[in-house]
Amino acid sequence: MHIDLHTHTTASDGMLEPMQLVQKARECGVRVLSITDHDTMAAYEDLVDRDTGLRLIPGIEWSTRWQKLEIHIVGLNVRPENADLRDGIRQQQHSRMDRADRIAAKLEKLGVDTPLAGAERLAQNRHIGRPHFARHMVDCGFVRNESQAFDKYLSAGKAAYCRTEWAPMEQVIEWTHSAGGLAVLAHPAAYKLTRSKLTSLIAGFKAAGGDAMEVVSGRQTRDMTSTLANLCRKQGLLASCGSDYHRSAPGFAEPGGFETLPSACRPVWESGFGDRGSGLVR
Questions:
Q1: Does 156 or 190 have the greater pLDDT score?
Q2: Which residue(s) pair with 71 in the sheet?
Q3: How many other CB atoms are found less than 10 A from the CB of residue 239?
Q4: Residue 59 and residue 41: Cα distance in Å, rounded?
Q5: Rounded to whole angstroms, how far apart are CA atoms 163 and 198?
Q6: Smaller CB count within 10 Å for the chain: N or C?
């Protein structure tokens, strides 16, 4: 794919600096890129007035909830300077820092050495996510790898998991629309829902004002792509796609390293998307 609308940098839990990600994406043949870090747009501050050599669509990945499930919504082609969006980011960052403090306290009781300081170091003084705690746990020898850190300690229901009171789905969609963007339900297959529950989630997202959903997210089966394409069409949503790139690793998609959208879907970039949003779009 020449279009990748879901990627991450060191501004959240990715492994590449913003310009490094841009260069990586170009090497992979991507011509239209959105950096969608978790609850922050700090990556774009590093790219202002720099020649990226591709078309950059300002984006963000919001954390929110549907019923009792944490889900993510990507805001595409938003204006970073919008006051409502900035207020939303501040609110989300406060929730993230509160969660980090609570996770660190639990990990310390479990015997992890200086978990908060370790996560802060890995986050490079930017916002702290669970992957930073996972990497620190590996570095100090508490677990063998990051997967074990999540499976045993950091995933929902595990010893160091902390529920976060994210802003409601309707609110993050409102922040996105106020900033001139489109709200996209991120990686629906990742929530591991039954078909009926997934249908309810997508319907609920549409009812809350959602505009599009990711029909293709990273490496997924053709059967899953077909299922998501059908659900997307039935709800009258636009279709988006992205690698959800965090780092280069076996089993994970490189930038642009995913299947094309099914032809029956209406791509999100056909929505007039180039006429909205920030002057950062090149």
A1: 190
A2: 64
A3: 23
A4: 7
A5: 21
A6: C
Tokens of 91: 């609110």
One-letter-per-residue 3-state SS of 130-149: HHHHHHHHHHCCCCCCHHHH
pLDDT per position as a tens digit, 234-248: 999 999 999 999 999
Alpha carbons within 13 A on the beta-carbon side of 159: 14
Distance separating alpha carbons of residues 258 and 2, to the nearest angstrom: 10
pTM: 0.89
CA distance 107 to 32: 40
- Amino acid identity of residue 94, one-letter, is H
Q: What are phi and psi of 170, to 5 degrees?
A: -60, -35
User: Helices H, strands E: what count in the chain?
Assistant: 9, 8
pLDDT over 70 percentage in the chain: 95
Strand partners of residue 72: 63
Q: Is the dihedral of CA 50, 12, 145, 113 positive or negative?
A: positive
Assigned token pair, 16: 């590449």
Name the pLDDT band for 275 (thresholds 50, 70, 90).
Answer: very low
252 exposed, middle or buried (CB, 10 Å; 0-12, 13-18, 19+)?
A: middle
